[in-house]
Automatic annotation (TrEMBL):
Keyword annotations: Glycosyltransferase, Transferase
Region listing for Disordered, in residue ranges: 58-114
Any Pfam family matching the protein: Glyco_tran_WecG
UniProt feature, compositional bias: Basic residues: 99-114
Name of the molecule in the record: Glycosyltransferase
Keyword Transferase among record annotations: yes
Cited InterPro entries: WecG_TagA_CpsF
PANTHER family: PTHR34136, UDP-N-ACETYL-D-MANNOSAMINURONIC ACID TRANSFERASE
């Protein structure tokens, strides 16, 4: 049996405490300091800091002021930002201005964004017509505006070849399918949509909700007199509807700065809460993007021919043709000169390719 080794005697100061062995040695702990004896000493990395050392901490130098002296212009090419060169700064006693933030979407909006279905390169919200109306009404109650776009085959074809047009659709707050080929393609991809939601239907359902909540409505688009006729038809069905104004811009108004400014100023002066813009894609989206900066609490609906449908100047297809995706045939027979090339040369081949690609992806994904 191995002999027991005695540890050397350790001399301890009065008041010291003995702590357990660490690496074979007795560790001496310094005497505890009571609160009423002396001020508390902060510990840094397990060591006590003496009061003298604590009071000798080097102060942090103030932040340097990089603003130029009086009489000097800001550096060229730099934006004028509050607190930087070129802009006045709040007084010494004034609190700093907090940056303006966009409101955080509510739970329903975040859930809807997660459920978006991508068809033909366009993110579409899987919502019914009543859900769209509820979403717009809830946003208006919160004082929030938005942009509603209704993609169809023609818009999808334009978006596929025009990056600027694609940005209009991607930045929209709501995008619902206004074409049965998009609904069929989503079904083939295994991400079905609840159905088709057209601008021609939304102009009636949203106007009904606007009449109930007394939200002023503005109609912009169509041939001369069409918007006024549509307003009369809407008021006849919903007598409490408030019409803030109507407008029928001439063709090519967006190329004339004076005409464009007149149309834009008229809408801003009317201060509507709901605006239907039927100028065709993407002209209506360009105007909407410009108006949203001045009317942040207004909802804009790019509705295409919906104003003409509401006015009765253009007849809609029967319900059974709309459900079966045959509305384009009805419209082609009514306006062959204007729609033959669009439907037969451009949209029909694109729709066939879209359905074929969606079928293949749905089978092998």
């Amino acid at each position: 049996m191995a002999p027991i080794t005695e540890h050397p005697r350790v001399n301890l100061r009065p008041g010291a405490q003995i702590v357990p062995f660490a690496l074979g040695r007795v560790v001496e702990r310094p005497p505890m300091v009571k609160r009423h004896d002396s001020p508390a000493m902060p510990f840094a990395l397990g060591r006590a800091v003496a009061p003298a050392a604590r009071d000798a901490v080097t102060p942090i130098p103030p932040r340097a002021d990089h603003r130029p002296a009086a009489g000097h212009d800001p550096a060229p090419g730099l934006p004028a930002v509050a607190g930087q060169a070129g802009t006045p700064v709040a007084g010494r006693g004034e609190p700093p201005t907090a940056p303006r933030r966009r409101p955080r979407p509510d739970k329903a909006t975040r859930r809807r964004l997660r459920r978006r279905v991508r068809v033909a390169g366009v993110a579409i919200d899987p919502m019914t017509e009543s859900e769209v109306v509820d979403h717009v009404v809830a946003a208006l109650k919160r004082g929030e505006g938005g942009h509603l776009v209704t993609p169809n085959v023609d818009i999808s074809r334009t978006v596929a070849r025009d990056p600027r047009a694609r940005r209009f659709v991607e930045r929209a707050d709501l995008a619902v399918a206004d074409g049965m080929p998009l609904v069929w393609a989503a079904r083939l991809l295994g991400t079905p949509l609840p159905g088709r939601v057209t601008g021609a239907d939304l102009i009636w359902s949203l106007s009904e909700a606007a009449a109930f909540y007394r939200h002023p409505v503005y109609l912009l688009g169509g041939p001369r007199g069409t918007a006024a006729q549509a307003a009369r038809e809407l008021v006849d069905r919903h007598p409490k509807l408030v019409i803030a104004g109507v407008g029928t811009p001439p063709y090519g108004f967006e190329d004339d700065p004076e005409s464009y400014a007149r149309v834009r100023d008229a809408v801003i002066a009317a201060a509507p809460r709901l605006v239907f813009v039927g100028l065709g894609f993407p002209r209506q989206e360009r105007l909407i993007a410009s108006l949203r900066r001045d009317l942040p609490g207004t909802w804009f609906v790019g509705c295409g021919s919906a104003i003409a449908f509401a006015a009765g100047t253009v007849r809609r297809a029967p319900a059974w043709m709309r459900r079966g995706g045959l509305e384009w045939i009805f419209r082609l027979t009514r306006e062959p000169g204007r729609l033959a090339r669009r439907y037969l040369v451009d949209d029909l081949p694109y729709a066939l390719r879209l359905l074929t690609v969606s079928l293949v992806r749905g089978l092998f994904s």
